[in-house]
Amino acid sequence: MYEEIRENLQDIDGLIVGSPVYYAGPNGSLCAILDRVFYSCSDLLKYKPAASVAVCRRGGASSTFDRYTPVDEQRTNEEHDIIFDESKAFSKQFTPVLNGDISVNYRINKRKLSHEFSLKMLNVGIRTGMHFYQYNEKTNKIKKEEGTGIIPNVSYKLYF
Ligand SMILES: Cc1cc2nc3c(=O)[nH]c(=O)nc-3n(C[C@H](O)[C@H](O)[C@H](O)COP(=O)(O)O)c2cc1C
User: Fold this and answer.
1) 23 lines ligand 1 (CB under 6 A)
2) Of 24, 88, 31, 79, nearest to 57 (Cα)?
């Protein structure tokens, strides 16, 4: 299967990866083949757009995406730039955090048409559990930044 994927990667413009959700994570066989492909075909994937799709029955879809590749600290320190350890691609899971959304809706019901105004504040727990890395050239250290931020979402819906 690896040889076949490698062959097909030669002519692709982009990549879409899909997986069923198995115990709040992607399918294990898919992770195994992706590890193998990322390890040795990164030249064929570089700068190409990619998207991923997860299908679940009940829950665990977002944690399926909440995976990251660890930093290769030795190479990062040698090259003074963040280098990921692609031999362990997506092997780590972000820390689960308690988070929530607040939503205020105002709906005007009419016989034929209803209007709904809504203000949502997503991510009110502020911490997302996600993080990213930056290389600080002045201190020559890897800096881990926590992902934060409340996301406001304003919408207007029409119901016929
Ligand atoms: C081993 C296993 C674990 C699963 N875990 C989850 C889960 O954590 N959450 C969920 O919503 N669905 C779960 N499902 C349901 C799958 O997501 C669902 O079957 C899948 O999206 C459809 O793909 P399939 O045709 O390969 O089963 C699980 C299914 C299997 C077989």
Assistant:
1) yes
2) 24
What angle (nearest 5°) sits at the alpha carbon of residue 53, between those of residues 52 and 54?
Answer: 125
How far is ligand 1, taken at its centre, from the CA of residue 50, in Å? 23
- Give tens-digit pLDDT for 65-118: 888 889 999 999 999 999 998 888 778 888 878 888 899 999 999 999 999 999
DSSP state of 158: E
Considering the entire predicted model, what is its pTM?
A: 0.61
Q: Considering only CA atoms, which residue is closest to atom 20 of ligand 1?
A: 20
CA-proximal residue: ligand 1, atom 29 (nearest): 22
Calculate how far, in angstroms, residue 61's C-alpha sits from the geometric centre of ligand 1: 10
Ligand 1: which atom is nearest the Cα of residue 57? 11
| Beta strand 151-159 pairing with 114-122 | antiparallel
pLDDT of residue 13: 93
Q: Is 26 exposed, middle or buried (0-12, 13-18, 19+ CB in 10 A)?
A: buried
